[in-house]
Amino acid sequence: MPCSSAVAASASRPELRNSLDDDLRRGCDALAFPVTPAQREVLLSYLGLLEKWNRTYNLTAIRDPARMITHHLLDSLVVAPLVSGQRVIDVGTGAGLPGVPLAVVMPGREFHLLDSNGKKTRFLFQVKTALGLDNMTVHHARVETFRPGQVYDAVLSRAFASLRDLVTGCRHLLSPGGRFLAMKGAYPGPELAAIEDQCDVVAVHPLQVPGLAGQRHLVELVLRPGTAHTQS
User: Is the pLDDT score of 91 beyond 90?
Assistant: First the structure.
């Protein structure tokens, strides 16, 4: 993978870079998901770009690089073993979470990152170019008007609204038999009840993010037969 400008910029802060790499390595070991040293380097370069662009574009409220390791990288990578399908779209991706970290550690899969915010998609185009992420495609569009040439095996969200909004707004993106993968904090009981007429719950996976005390869950849903590819 090519060296980005963020890697070069980090040369002036080698102690910080080494500390962040140690935190990331320990976190990945705790997740028991294989992440190579080269992939960690790319992930840290992504954080370098995020930190740089954040000064001007306010992409994330978290500005401390050490907290970005836990709250952004590890919080994204925790779902990697549960991501299904070859073509995945991350809707409302914002600064590229979880899509960018997942694209880095799963180069054999195709990740599409969708957001309606132009400054965020411009940042993501820069990330794709600087980090050489050929398996990542960026789309600047509103989800309800976005019409891809090919539907997706999984629709993934981290910062989307309710499960009902996710299902209603994104069902046209999902292939027959595909999965919704919604990242949530506390167990979303009322949200699950609100979509029980449209979806079957495959599982609600409790997640443990190293360094984070709060609850995390991944909700895995499939559309019920006869409800796919229609919009409310």
Answer: yes
